[in-house]
């Protein structure tokens, strides 16, 4: 029965096939679908329709057979018009995709190579300062604004999109030690070697008007650092002691000192906003709570820390840039041992700043390089240097986490990409998908020796290889082994 | 809670004019309820209104909860996926979880497992949407499918499929070798006496036809349908689809059989001088030349799963080769007398061989063990396996097709067809239910229902691809060409941890550092105040930790022991089952 009907059907389809040459294609599709459905019905064993047919058809046919041969309708697999996109039917059956691992490995290898090819991190150099750039400040509200203070007391405001200076003012006599923008973004503070704190408005004065600070506070001693509270009108300075200032008053509302003669930097915690951290010249890092009258605790290390930066995502964690070429990430609850020691610089580390994601930070060093470290990795993932860049004094990670700004001794501010091989600008959907896919592949195969070798390869000045492989003068075993984490902490005082 | 709700109800009733919700099929039981209650229809309407408001909220909450129509969801949660379908897409067993203190590692592992689990499920679900079903052939109750003739099948099926059964009568230059391109669209014929033709066999459009005026021993498509290699009397030649000679490769002489490894872009050739040579067709360089020292090599096939070349020899052995090793990876004695043909299935699990001893044998190629052996009265000269595991064997001028040769003992062929002249070449067309047979009198295209994979992957091999798609595919394929060094017996080796190298490096590190950086840290008790850190208390705490560690060790050893015992028991049970069979000597036992 089946064969008869299927034969009839084939005749029918033959007729239809003939017709399709004349008719529109959608008709064929309908017919073929119909045929497929009817075949399916016929193939069921005990359908009543076929059983009635059976008695009549027995005479005609020698045997009954059920047969189906693969027969695809090309219309299901080819695009209808040239304006459509191509059809790509998928089948994820692993047997159709042999050598999965090897192919993925090859893709990962290619992606890694391409990443190195496209790694062009340097975007722009902002020149205009007449002395070394001593401090940088991000604008809290606008991504494109940057403030920089130089060693001759000049402060410049930059427009990063146009890459030009929009405003210059002589803020202090001597060094500008610190710049910070108020959280509202309407004004900013500077401290300098002339023992003054000045508040300036963000707006450029009109034509013919002179640059005048909104407010000037005369201090007793030199200020070396400055930071503003996240959401209160309170700021902190450091010099011979740590002072907490109310913006409305001309004297500090609180002063902390702990037998230390000078501090090099002070930072407010961006999450627990009343906490402060400071680096002192007696090799200690001191933590404060603004609400209390005495400091919380301090950790003394073997060498002095230059600056510290709090992790904006993890309230208890901070990283300090040390003179002993390393950076240390601490948990402020457990200062006995740093969480991680970040090694790779070959000279004193001068500045550090976290990415707003809290996953990575950038460090500036006296060795004329800046390095990017993942927060829980002991070694840097990236190093940036140029022929002309001298000792990098200050560094900032932009608030959109895409760029890095560095100010260095030779009077320039440099703009870098945070991911060297990243494509800037708007990405199409497919581009982004491809980038994500290759990123995942690189992660998956990152430990394969070939891929790791390529991914880690950097051109560095010769001096680095000299620094890195020094010879130890001690006999193995003569000095007790101390882990790197324990080595650099002298004591914790509460 | 309830009282609160009623309060809001009255409030709503007063303020807003109640709008009756539109009738939905799921509201029907509600209506019956209403008619039963009779009086308080207003309240019910309000209730319905409220429910309609909460509809979204309820939908978002768990599916186990009752729906607003008081009906419970008959299919709560996501649709179940059949286990066998999940099994089809499974790549690896789950990783054993690391010990507690590796917190970061644990996180990484759980996250990656979650991702792979999701991918697995999605792939398995997608399987349901595949458009085509595989073909089949079923005879009457007491009728063999092998007696059904090709003409009957061609008559019964639709006209386009029927047209796929055809004969080409080429009596002058036969016998013919056959090769289908990777997408299954193009067919290449090479006659023993120099006739060479390639055409789109579905539209029967001829692309080129030449006579090379030399004997041809084998033909093979290269990675695209625009190039093919021909092993001629002396050298190896590469032609394009217009029949223009592109290369004459003099390094490859007296080639008898060829195999193309599509993902490695390697053309492997076996020659009469017992050389196995690999040609990289993307760079044109010879990758490896191996002297097998086993005489004339005229039996060859590749394992599509791991790109290992199988060679059959006249002494009955089959050897496995990779380009990275000068020696054979494996030598198997398969037949008494010479090996006539070898074929390996798509997943690389089974190898089928036929020999001069008229036997057809199936081997598990992963365990290197024989599975089954069949006796064919005429012996099989050519073997070919289809994508769905059908085996075609040519015995003289009869082509037989077998089904399930490795899982069940087969007594009868699935299909059979007699061609004119002895069969010289045999290949299943990929993604079609078609078997191409090259023989002394030309070429026959047979219909074998159920041979081809019904659903192709458009990014891998697309029979319907346009010129643009082909170009794009070619660039991508060349970019991800696998290096010949990666060919090994297990293609997933690359995804495993290289423990040997790791251990070696670790030892070196320990030596250079003077201590083991990965060693477990010694437990140092915390200093506690209020006199709790007396010497005795500290010792006690230390002991406690030590005990816990010891307990872990003991627990592990006990578990191992239990496992071993279970294995032993199972073994003994098996032995006992074997020995329970009665032997003639049992009668003397008490």
Number of domains of chain B: 4
From the coordinates shown, what is the CATH architecture of the largest domain in chain B?
7 Propeller
The share of residues in helices of chain A is 10-25%
The residue fraction in helices of chain B comes out at 25-40%
Strand content of chain B: 25-35%
Name of the level-1 CATH class of the largest domain in chain B: Mainly Beta
Main interface by residue count: A-B, 49 and 72 residues
Overall outline of chain B: globular
Please give a structural write-up.
The complex is a heterodimer of chains A (494) and B (590). Chain A is α+β, with helices and mostly antiparallel strands and 494 residues long. Helix content of chain A is 20%, strand content 32%. Chain A folds into 2 domains: 2-76, no CATH class; 122-420 and 440-468, Methylamine Dehydrogenase, Chain H (7 Propeller), CATH 2.130.10.10. Chain A has helices at residues 2-20, 25-43, 48-57, 100-117, 429-444, 449-456, 463-468, 484-487; strands at 66-68, 122-127, 133-138, 145-150, 154-159, 164-170, 176-181, 187-192, 196-201, 215-218, 225-228, 234-238, 242-246, 254-256, 263-268, 275-280, 284-289, 297-301, 305-310, 317-322, 327-331, 340-342, 349-354, 360-365, 370-374, 382-384, 392-397, 403-408, 412-417, 489-493. Chain A has a 5-stranded antiparallel sheet. In chain A, strand 21 and strand 22 form a beta hairpin. In chain A, helix 1 runs antiparallel to helix 2 (25-43), helix 4 (100-117) packs across helix 5 (429-444) and helix 4 (100-117) packs parallel to helix 6. The longest helix of chain A is centred in the first third of the chain and has 19 residues, at 2-20. In chain B, helix 4 packs across helix 5 (103-126). Chain B has a 4-stranded antiparallel sheet with strand order 2-29-28-27. In chain B, strands 3-4-5-6 form a 4-stranded antiparallel sheet, with no helix packed on it. A 4-stranded antiparallel sheet of chain B has the order 7-8-9-10, with no helix packed on it. Chain B has helices at residues 2-15, 28-37, 41-60, 83-89, 103-126, 150-156, 159-162, 467-479, 499-513, 535-579, and strands spanning 136-138, 166-169, 176-180, 186-191, 195-200, 205-211, 216-221, 227-232, 235-240, 245-253, 255-261, 266-271, 275-280, 285-291, 299-302, 309-312, 317-321, 330-333, 339-344, 350-355, 359-364, 369-375, 382-385, 391-395, 398-402, 415-418, 423-428, 434-439, 442-447. The longest helix of chain B has 45 residues, at 535-579. Chain B folds into 4 domains: 2-60, no CATH class; 83-129, no CATH class; 145-472, YVTN repeat-like/Quinoprotein amine dehydrogenase (Methylamine Dehydrogenase, Chain H, 7 Propeller); 507-550, no CATH class. The radius of gyration of chain B is 34 Å and the shape is globular. The termini of chain B are far apart. Classes of the chains: A alpha+beta (494), B alpha+beta (590). Strand 1 (66-68) of chain A pairs antiparallel with strand 1 (136-138) of chain B, so a sheet runs across the interface. Chain A: Belongs to the WD repeat DCAF13/WDSOF1 family. Chain A: Pathway: Protein modification; protein ubiquitination. Chain A: Keywords: Nucleus, Repeat, Ribonucleoprotein, Ribosome biogenesis, rRNA processing, Ubl conjugation pathway, WD repeat. Chain A: This is DDB1- and CUL4-associated factor 13.
């Amino acid at each position: 029965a089946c064969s008869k009907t299927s034969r009839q059907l084939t005749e029918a389809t033959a007729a239809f096939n003939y017709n399709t040459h004349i008719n529109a294609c959608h008709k064929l599709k309908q017919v073929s679908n119909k045929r497929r459905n009817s075949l399916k019905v016929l193939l069921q064993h005990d359908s009543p329709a076929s059983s009635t047919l059976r008695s009549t058809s027995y005479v005609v046919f020698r045997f009954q057979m059920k047969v189906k041969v693969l027969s695809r309708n090309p219309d299901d697999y080819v695009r209808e018009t040239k304006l459509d996109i191509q059809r790509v039917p998928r089948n994820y059956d692993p047997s159709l995709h042999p050598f999965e691992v090897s192919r993925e490995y090859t893709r990962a290898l290619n992606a890694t190579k391409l990443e190195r090819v496209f790694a062009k991190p340097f975007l722009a150099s902002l020149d205009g300062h007449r002395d070394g750039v001593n401090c940088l400040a991000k604008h809290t509200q606008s991504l494109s604004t940057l403030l920089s203070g130089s060693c001759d007391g000049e402060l410049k405001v930059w427009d990063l999109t146009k890459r030009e200076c929009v405003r210059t003012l002589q803020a202090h006599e001597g060094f500008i030690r610190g710049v910070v923008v108020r959280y509202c973004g309407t004004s900013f503070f500077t401290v300098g070697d002339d023992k003054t704190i000045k508040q300036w408005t963000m707006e450029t004065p009109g034509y013919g008007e002179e640059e005048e600070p909104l407010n000037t506070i005369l201090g007793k001693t030199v200020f070396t650092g400055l930071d503003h509270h996240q959401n209160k009108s309170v700021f902190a300075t450091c010099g011979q002691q740590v002072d907490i200032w109310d913006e409305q008053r001309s004297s500090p509302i609180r002063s902390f000192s702990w037998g230390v003669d000078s501090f090099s930097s002070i930072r407010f915690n961006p999450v627990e906003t009343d906490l402060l951290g400071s680096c002192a010249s007696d090799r200690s890092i001191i933590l404060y709570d603004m609400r209390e009258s005495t400091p919380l605790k301090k950790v003394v290390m073997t060498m002095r820390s230059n600056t510290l930066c709090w992790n904006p995502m993890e309230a208890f964690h901070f990283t300090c840039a040390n003179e002993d070429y390393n950076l240390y990430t601490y948990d402020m609850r457990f200062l006995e041992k740093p969480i991680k020691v970040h090694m790779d610089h070959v000279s004193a580390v001068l500045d550090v700043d976290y990415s707003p994601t809290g996953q990575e930070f950038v460090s500036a060093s006296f060795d004329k390089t800046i390095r990017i470290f993942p927060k829980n990795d002991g070694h840097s993932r990236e190093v940036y240097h140029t022929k002309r860049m001298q000792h990098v004094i200050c560094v900032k990670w932009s608030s959109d986490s895409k760029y890095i700004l560095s100010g260095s001794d030779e009077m320039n501010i440099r703009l870098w990409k945070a991911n060297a091989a990243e494509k800037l600008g708007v990405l199409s959907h497919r581009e982004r998908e491809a980038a994500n896919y290759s990123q995942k592949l690189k992660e998956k195969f990152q430990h394969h020796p070939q891929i790791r070798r390529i991914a880690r390869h950097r051109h560095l000045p010769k001096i680095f290889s000299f620094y890195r492989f020094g010879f130890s003068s001690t006999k193995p075993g003569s000095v007790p082994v101390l882990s790197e984490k324990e080595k650099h902490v002298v004591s914790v005082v509460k | 809670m309830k009282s609160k709700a009623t309060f809001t109800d009255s409030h709503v009733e007063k303020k807003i004019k109640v709008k009756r919700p539109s009738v939905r099929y799921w509201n029907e039981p509600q209506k019956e309820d209403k008619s039963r209650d009779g009086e308080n229809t207003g309240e019910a309407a309000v209730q319905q209104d409220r429910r309609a408001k909460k509809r979204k909220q309820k939908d978002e909450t768990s599916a186990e909860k009752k729906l607003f129509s008081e009906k419970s969801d008959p299919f709560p949660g996501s649709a179940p996926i059949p286990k066998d379908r999940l099994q089809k897409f499974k790549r690896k067993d789950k990783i054993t979880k690391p010990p507690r203190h590796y917190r970061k590692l644990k996180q990484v592992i759980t996250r990656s497992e979650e991702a792979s689990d999701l991918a697995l499920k999605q792939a398995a679900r997608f399987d349901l949407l595949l458009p085509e079903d595989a073909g089949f052939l079923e005879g009457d109750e007491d009728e063999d499918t092998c007696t059904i003739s090709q003409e009957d099948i061609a008559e019964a099926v639709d006209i386009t499929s029927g047209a796929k059964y055809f004969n080409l009568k080429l009596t002058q230059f036969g016998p013919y070798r056959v090769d289908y391109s990777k997408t299954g669209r193009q067919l290449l014929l090479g006659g023993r006496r120099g006739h060479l033709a390639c055409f789109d066999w579905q539209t029967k459009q001829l692309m080129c036809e030449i006579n090379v005026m030399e004997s041809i021993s084998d033909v093979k498509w290269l990675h695209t349908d625009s190039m093919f290699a021909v092993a001629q009397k002396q050298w190896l030649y590469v032609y394009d689809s217009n029949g223009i000679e592109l290369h004459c490769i003099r390094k490859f002489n007296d080639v008898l059989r060829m195999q193309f490894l599509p993902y490695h872009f390697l053309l492997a050739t076996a020659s009469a001088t017992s050389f196995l040579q690999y040609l990289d067709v993307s760079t044109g360089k010879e990758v490896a030349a191996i002297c097998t020292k086993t005489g004339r090599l005229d039996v060859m096939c590749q394992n599509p799963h791991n790109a290992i070349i199988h060679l059959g020899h006249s002494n009955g052995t089959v050897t496995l080769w990779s380009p990275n090793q000068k020696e054979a990876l494996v030598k198997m004695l398969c037949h008494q007398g010479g090996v006539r043909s070898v074929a390996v299935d798509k997943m690389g699990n089974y190898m089928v061989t036929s020999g001069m001893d008229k036997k057809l044998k199936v081997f598990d190629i992963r365990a290197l063990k024989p599975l089954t052996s069949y006796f064919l009265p005429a012996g099989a000269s050519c073997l070919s396996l289809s994508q769905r595991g059908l085996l075609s064997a040519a015995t003289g001028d009869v082509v037989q097709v077998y089904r399930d040769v490795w899982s069940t003992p087969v007594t009868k062929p699935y299909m059979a067809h007699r061609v004119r002249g002895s069969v010289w070449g045999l290949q299943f067309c990929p993604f079609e239910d078609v078997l191409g047979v090259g023989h002394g009198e030309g070429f026959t295209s047979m219909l074998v229902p159920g041979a081809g994979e019904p659903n192709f992957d458009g990014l891998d091999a697309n029979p319907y691809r346009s010129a643009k798609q082909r170009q794009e595919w070619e660039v991508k394929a060349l970019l991800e060409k696998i290096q010949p060094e990666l060919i090994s017996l297990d293609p997933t080796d690359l995804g495993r941890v290289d423990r040997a190298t790791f251990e070696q490096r670790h030892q070196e590190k320990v030596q250079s550092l003077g201590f083991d950086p990965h060693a477990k840290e010694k437990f140092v008790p915390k200093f506690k105040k209020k006199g709790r850190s007396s010497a005795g208390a500290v010792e006690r705490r230390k002991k406690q930790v030590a005990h816990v560690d010891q307990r872990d060790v003991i627990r592990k050893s006990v578990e191992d022991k239990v496992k071993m015992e279970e294995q032993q028991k199972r073994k003994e049970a098996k032995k006992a089952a074997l020995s329970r069979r009665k032997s003639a000597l049992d009668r003397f036992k008490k």
